[in-house]
Amino acid sequence: MPNDQWQSMILSGELGRHPVHFFTSTGSTNDLALALSNTGAPGGTVVVADCQSAGRGRLEGRRWLSPPGTGLYFSLILRPHLAPQDFPKLTLTAGLALCKALESRTPCQPGLKWPNDLFLHGKKCGGILTETQAMTGSGQTAVVIGIGLNVNTPAETFSGELRTKATSLQAETGISCDRGSLLESILAELDLEVARLEQGDFPSILTEWRQRDIHTGLQVSWVNTQGRIINGTSLGPDEEGFLHIRDAQGHIHSVISGDISLAQE
To answer: Would the pTM of this model clear 0.85, i.e. be above it?
Structure first.
């Protein structure tokens, strides 16, 4: 399928209502978006790259494979009408929006791994990185939502151990997608879900997120920020978006950050 809308986006510098800054290659779209936000770029601005040399994950040292011509690597600048303590809810909100866009545009039924990963058939297909940048002066705090999604990435691109852990939309469905059209759908869903969050509708967002949770009720391992491993049953995220895990002694741990995996992984 020709990437007609992708080319149109590059030429026009916009996609739907969103102004777009396109780069053939960059280190990280989040870094560029954070820099733009600090110079007054309006909410809704999108930074898109055909490939990244330093795409990064949520945890320190993690990298996101970003080969050219196959995936979506983009960052959306928001200036949300939210209290700062509600900013972490944007990651779950973005995950739901990403799922809804894929469910409407592809045969996929993606699942979500707390707090920021999208899975297809047990393999990671996408990830979300949310970062904030306080503007200089009296400007409103900006939040950048970065998304990496394996779209038309061939299965053979994932080499070695990564082949058992990563996948793409094309590898799972055999269908090639117009990245521009898919990006427009994702942005439209992000607009809708962020508006719901701003209107105080996180409880229903959370309900829909939980319906796609791949770990609730399963035995998981959590490596906390101090490196301690805790095993237990995932209870899913609470009303603030923090994950809860019940260990073998019945103690419930509230997980704000750290790495989660199935116990047998």
So the answer is: yes
Q: Which residues contact 221 (CB under 8 A, 6 or more apart)?
A: 229, 230, 231, 260, 261, 262, 263, 265
Helices 179-198, 4-12: inter-axial angle, 10-degree rounding: 70
At residue 249, what are phi and psi to the nearest 5 degrees?
-90, 0
Q: How far apart are CA 183 and CA 187, in angstroms?
A: 6
pLDDT in tens, the chain (265 residues): 456 899 999 999 999 999 999 999 999 999 999 999 999 899 999 999 999 876 555 544 455 566 788 999 999 999 999 999 999 999 999 999 999 999 999 999 999 999 999 999 999 999 999 999 765 554 678 999 999 999 999 888 887 778 889 999 999 999 999 999 999 999 999 999 999 999 999 999 999 999 999 999 999 998 877 788 889 999 999 999 999 999 999 999 999 877 788 875 4
Do 107 and 119 contact (CB within 8 A), yes or no? Answer: no
Mark 67-101 as b/e (b = at least 16 C-beta within 10 Å): eeebbbbbbbbbbbebeeebbbbbbbbbbbbbbbb
User: What structural domains does the chain harbor?
Assistant: 4-210 (3.30.930.10), 219-262 (2.30.30.100)
Element (H, E) at 73: strand 71-78
Label residues 199-218 b or e (16+ Cβ within 10 Å = b).
Answer: eeebeebbebbeebbbbbee
3-state secondary structure at position 2? coil
Q: Is 19 helix (H, G, I), strand (E, B) or coil?
A: strand
